[in-house]
Description:
11 helices; binds aspartic acid; binds magnesium ion
Amino acid sequence: MSKVGGSLLTNGNVLNVINKVMDRERLYNGKLIIVVSAMKGVTDLLIRAFDGHDAGALDDAISIYINEALSLGFNKLASFLELTREELLRFINLREPWIRDYVVIHGELLSVLLVENILRDLLELNAKAVYEPGIITNDSWGSALVNHESSIKYVVSRFGRVFSTYDVAVVPGFLGVTGDGRYASLGRGGSDYTASLLANFLGASRLTFYTDSGGLLSGDPRIISDPVLIREISYGEANVASMLGAKKFHPRTFEPLVNSRVVTFITDPWHESGTYVINNCITTPKLVTVSEAGGDRFKVSVVGCNLSLNDHLRNEVAKIASSYEIDEVRNEHNHAISTLVSNWDDVIALARDVHRWVRVWIA
Ligand code: ASP
Ligand code: MG
């Protein structure tokens, strides 16, 4: 099972990326599910189209797909996309909250359509688009909650049927469906969550997240100049790290996998290196995150297994933080210690200081 992030799906590159992912995934025999995100930038454009009644933004979003279809020689697909544009043009002027979700999840639906064509017509694989994988949600539009019990039944039976005929299923991330059959979005970054839900429901042996920036790093490269690749991290730590915004994962990405037997790997399509997420938890500091804490404050957090239960490590973090104006030191779910800071310059300096300490543990 694999998930292909939207940052990889840019004009001129989709065939290359899918080809590379298939090369890597073919090593593991058996059936394959590919969860896809919207192409880069498309979800933002669709949100702008709906919220601002902005037909130009809708045009831009659909054109990204039309250009890709035409450059791959999929002329019929390009004409179909024109019709989708016309349909959505009517929807962006309606003000129902569920219609906003319906518009916004279209990036993922169109990615599925495009990738199915690539797999079937260009890579000659026995592939099938599954536009609605059976993730059942409530109607909290914009960030719908998943009903695990009903979903598992639908998901298992849907893929059982698909895989009796096909080898590869292409599935849209980011969406669920309500009991009355309307598409609902799982919240920004939700394709990650789709992949982990499906891996859990189907008892997948492997789940690989393909992103444009490879595995999980010890710090955000926009803030930290020398972050290093984390080779192994536990599900518990990865869960807290994604709640704290690491690598822009959906906050629930690792929640379905905590205690599961799925082997998760985070990598990019071109390199063998990456991060394994496993069930073994070692009490060392692993990574630093910076996130918004509300009320104009930020959180500088250090994540490591049972870190906040370890007095010695807690004191070390508090000692580093004591040179700064901090508002509070807080434990997060046993696996992280956060300091709340208001001044942005302090946020950056503290994150770099804490990272220097984390690096010593990783080295
Ligand atoms: N396309 C959606 C977003 O941009 C979901 C995802 O990429 O995971 O939030
Ligand atoms: Mg993402």
